[in-house]
Each structure stands twice: as structure tokens, then as C-alpha cells.
């Protein structure tokens, strides 16, 4: 016959499977499932101290039996209940947790301040998020008076390797345990959905002293699911006017005649040189695809050749009376026109992109399933804002308010 510990494990595995099979949906049923998992873990802590975990159902008292039956009922409603029953179920779970007979010195997890976290990241490979656990953690915040050992607490992610993340900082008081998690590798945040969230399992361990005269160190463990929102606020499609090349014209051009005469330099019997610059026709550029041709002059040479000019070194060798030639080259002109241009832009939380235009239209398909469209700054639209930065409109994926509040709260603990 199964022990109470075994029955609790079956219930917990059933709830975990239910959450995993929801594929990142965000709804009250999922949130209630997380709370039921917390209730099961609290029951395990309470019944560890009362020495009921290793008993069978036939051996436990009526109080424990009633609570075990209540837990079974909560799980059944979770799986089979209508939406109206789920709305009521949430309060029933909270009542169950508060009804457990836990002493003041025993840790108790009542819930999460932030069920969902937003990862502040500039690349997919790294990021930071904060998790808050609410409850009674009297002996996690400070050592029990008279205890021979310092009591502590820890957070881990059992489905990932320890080098995938780092707990960069943790803080505790009587009612809150908070952890700042630095994501290091790609595994923890891999296969992130574009909508909804990715649920990942955490393992919170809290040591406490169950002794009276002598220390009796025990450890409460809670396996809680948290939802990690996508690394980006959603799909962003930007439409704005942009100059595009609609046609390219080319024309062959012959320069004016270039010449040097020795009689103009009576005191220079040797080599005579002169540099002449040729500019393209107004509104045109010189194409660099083919070099210009020096017609009928083997001595002169091109010194500079680019889109904006040609510098020719005219050379009159010693013994030559004159040189006379022209340069042939090709000019190019782009015909441009402003046209509406649409493109998908990618912004992670905290990212920004200048719009380079005061005329724009943004279609924003948010990760939470809502769609917004705007052509001017709209404060009521969540997650995505248009701010004036250095004199031009800039689209910003603002770090959500709940994440900013979490960071502020972390500093105050």
C-alpha cells in the first residue's frame, strides 16, 4: 500500500504533467495548477514534522485524511472542472495552504510575487531575471537562536545543468526569499515561444531547525513552476516611406579636349606635367565599373578615379611639341522615389531602433496575444513605445513595469 509520501508524489507528478502539456498557455487554470503544486509541497513539509509521511492511509488520523482527500479533490477539479469551478478553485487552494498545521518556525511557501518573469537581455545567450517567493521564512532570514548550524536556502533549476545559470544574488527576510538569476548559456532560454511563455521548474530548498534543546536540521523543498515570457515583446512590423531606386540611367561621356603645348613652357625643355580634374555632369556619378579611356595619348595617366572625379596627369615628354586628347567614361544616374516600405524588426527587452522618419506605421503583435497598430506615440500600448531620442523618433521595447518593480523591490529587501 502506498505511503502518504508516495501519494503526495503521485499528485505532484500529475500536476506537473498537466502544466507541461499546456504548451505555454497563460490562463487561470495554469496559475491554479502552480498553486496546487505549492499546496502539495507545503503538505509534505507539515506532515514530515508530524511523522505521517511514511504511514499508509489506514494509519493516519482523520485530520490528515481529510486534508489528503481535499488535495485529491483539488487536482481532480483542476483537470476536469469547468471554467467557473476553476475560478473558485484558486481560493480553495489558498485556504488549504493556510489550514495546514505548521509551526511558526517551520517554513511555509504561500505563493509567488511574480508568477512570470521577463528576461532582460541583449542577446539570446545571456540575461537576468528576478524571482520572489512569499511565505514564512523566519529561519532562512536569520539563524535560529541556539542552533549549532547556520540555516540557509537555495534555488536551482533541476531540468538544466548548473553551468547554464548562476544565482548572482539572493536576499531573505521573514516573508520573502528573492533570487537574481543570471542566465549564462542557451539551454535555459532555448526554444522560447513567440507567444505565451515557457514554464520552467524551480527547486527551492529551505533549511530549518526542528530541534528544541538540540539542533535537528531539516530541509523543506518546494518545486515551483515559473513562467518565462519570450525574450522579445512580439512581432513588430514597421512601415515607413523610404527612398528606393526605381531606375538606373547610364550614358557615355567624352571630356573636353585636354592638351599641353611646349611653346607655352619655353623654359622647360624636359618633361612637362599638369594635373586636370574632370567632374561628372550635375546630378550624375562616374561609374567605376570600367576605367576611363585615354584616347591617343600613351604618356598621360589617370591618378584618381572615383564616382565624383577623375584626376588626369597630362604628360608631355621631352622632345614632344604637344599632346592633345580626350577622356571617355561612363556616367550613372539613379532615379529614386519615396515608397512605402514594410519590414519586420527584432527588438529584445530594452532594445531600441531609430525610425529615421516622422511618418511611420507600426503593427505590433504582442506575445500576450493582443495586436496593436499606431502611427504616433501611444502611451496606453504596453511594452512598445515611441520616444524622442536625439531629436528623432525611436521605437523602444521597454522593460515591463512588473520587471522594473521587481528590480526595485529586490533592492528594498
What would you note in describing this structure?
About 2% of the residues have low confidence. It contains 6 helices and 23 strands. 22% of the residues lie in helices and 39% in strands. The chain has 4 domains: 102 residues; 125 residues, Sandwich (Immunoglobulin-like), CATH 2.60.40; 72 residues, no CATH class; 91 residues, Immunoglobulin-like, CATH 2.60.40. Strands 10, 13, 14, 18, 20 and 21 form a 6-stranded antiparallel β-sheet that branches.
What is the distance, rounded to the nearest whole angstrom, between the alpha carbons of the first and last residues?
46 Å
How is the biggest beta sheet arranged?
A: 6 strands, antiparallel
Q: Which strand-content bin applies to the residues?
A: 35-45%
Unreliable stretches covering 5 or more consecutive residues = 143-149
Binned, the helix content reads 10-25%
Q: What is the count of β-strands?
A: 23
CATH topology of the largest domain: Immunoglobulin-like
CATH class of the largest domain: Mainly Beta
Number of domains: 4
Mean pLDDT: 85
- What structural class do the secondary elements suggest? alpha+beta
What count of helical segments does DSSP give?
6
CATH architecture of the largest domain, by name, is: Sandwich
Order of helices and strands: HHHHEEEEHEEEEEEEEEEEEEEEEEEEH
Oligomer: single chain
Q: What is the 3D shape?
A: elongated
Amino acid at each position: 500500500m502506498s505511503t502518504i509520501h508516495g501519494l503526495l508524489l503521485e499528485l505532484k507528478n500529475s500536476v506537473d504533467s498537466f502544466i507541461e502539456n499546456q504548451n505555454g498557455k497563460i490562463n487561470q487554470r495554469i496559475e491554479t495548477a502552480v498553486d496546487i503544486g505549492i499546496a502539495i509541497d507545503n503538505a509534505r513539509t507539515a506532515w514530515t514534522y508530524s511523522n505521517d509521511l511514511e504511514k499508509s492511509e489506514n494509519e493516519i488520523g482523520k485530520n490528515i485524511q481529510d486534508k489528503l482527500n481535499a488535495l485529491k479533490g483539488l487536482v481532480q477539479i483542476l483537470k476536469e472542472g469547468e471554467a467557473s469551478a476553476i475560478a473558485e478553485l484558486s481560493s480553495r487552494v489558498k485556504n488549504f495552504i493556510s489550514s495546514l498545521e505548521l509551526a511558526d518556525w517551520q517554513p511555509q511557501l504561500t505563493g509567488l510575487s511574480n508568477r512570470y518573469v521577463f528576461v532582460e537581455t541583449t542577446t539570446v545567450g545571456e540575461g537576468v531575471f528576478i524571482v520572489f517567493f512569499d511565505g514564512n521564512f523566519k529561519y532562512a532570514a536569520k539563524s535560529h537562536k541556539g542552533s549549532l548550524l547556520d540555516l540557509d536556502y537555495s534555488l536551482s533549476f533541476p531540468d538544466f545543468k548548473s553551468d547554464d545559470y548562476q544565482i548572482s544574488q539572493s536576499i531573505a527576510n521573514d516573508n520573502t526569499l528573492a533570487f537574481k538569476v543570471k542566465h549564462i548559456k542557451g539551454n535555459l532560454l532555448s526554444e522560447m515561444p513567440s507567444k505565451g511563455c515557457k514554464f520552467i521548474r524551480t527547486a527551492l530548498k529551505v533549511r530549518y531547525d526542528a530541534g528544541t534543546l538540540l539542533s535537528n536540521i531539516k530541509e523543506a523543498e518546494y518545486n515551483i513552476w515559473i513562467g518565462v515570457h519570450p525574450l522579445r515583446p512580439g512581432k513588430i512590423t514597421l512601415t515607413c516611406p523610404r527612398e528606393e531606386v526605381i531606375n538606373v540611367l547610364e550614358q557615355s561621356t567624352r571630356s573636353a579636349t585636354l592638351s599641353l603645348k611646349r611653346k607655352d613652357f619655353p623654359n622647360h625643355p624636359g618633361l612637362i606635367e599638369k594635373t586636370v580634374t574632370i567632374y561628372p555632369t550635375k546630378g550624375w556619378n562616374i561609374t567605376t565599373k570600367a576605367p576611363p579611356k585615354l584616347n591617343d595619348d600613351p604618356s598621360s595617366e589617370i591618378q584618381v578615379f572615383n564616382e565624383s572625379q577623375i584626376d588626369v596627369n597630362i604628360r608631355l615628354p621631352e622632345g614632344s611639341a604637344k599632346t592633345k586628347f580626350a577622356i571617355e567614361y561612363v556616367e550613372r544616374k539613379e532615379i529614386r522615389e519615396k515608397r512605402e516600405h514594410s519590414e519586420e524588426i527584432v527588438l529584445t527587452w530594452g532594445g531600441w531602433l531609430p525610425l529615421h522618419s516622422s511618418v511611420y506605421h507600426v503593427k505590433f503583435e504582442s506575445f500576450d496575444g493582443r495586436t496593436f497598430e499606431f502611427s504616433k506615440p501611444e502611451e496606453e500600448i504596453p511594452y512598445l513605445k515611441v520616444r524622442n531620442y536625439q531629436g528623432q523618433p525611436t521605437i523602444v521595447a521597454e522593460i515591463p513595469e512588473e520587471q522594473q518593480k521587481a528590480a526595485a523591490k529586490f533592492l528594498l529587501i
